[in-house]
């Protein structure tokens, strides 16, 4: 199931082209400025940060799957459970801080350079207000 979700996400990402001019809101900000960058995209702090967050989530997920799949063979000791809980808390706090920083610095700029934010903003507001929740919220409560 997890691999199927990843395949669906990869397909959606492949179908989405943020450089499409339909997202351009101003001639001052063309959607593809990569040629003006002094470094390749993979060296961008934006790309590095998001890759790190994704990799970290994947590693944590693999850890939990391994624990689940081996639960009949091993019993975790209290210190191991504490370590997993602490790792989760550190990761959760890092993701929250990352998104808080994006909200603080990017929300002002993005609407001026791209129409992409228009579809995202209502979803963000529902999450912030607590109107919309997902299973992740329940996991957070249990892990903390």
Q: Can you describe this structure?
A:
The protein is mostly helical. The protein has 5 helices and no strands. It has helices at 2-15, 45-69, 78-113, 117-129, 135-143. Helix 2 (45-69) packs antiparallel against helix 3. The longest helix is centred in the middle third of the chain and has 36 residues, at 78-113. It starts with a helix and ends with a helix. The mean pLDDT is 78.
Write the layout of secondary structure elements.
Elements: H1 2-15, H2 45-69, H3 78-113, H4 117-129, H5 135-143
Helix pairs in contact: 2-3
For the secondary structure, the number of strands is: 0
List low-confidence stretches.
Answer: none
The percent range for strand residues is under 5%
Distance between the termini: 26 Å
Level of helix content?
55-70%
Shape designation: elongated
- Which structural class is indicated by helix and strand composition? mainly alpha
Number of helices: 5
Largest sheet: none
Please state the average pLDDT score: 78
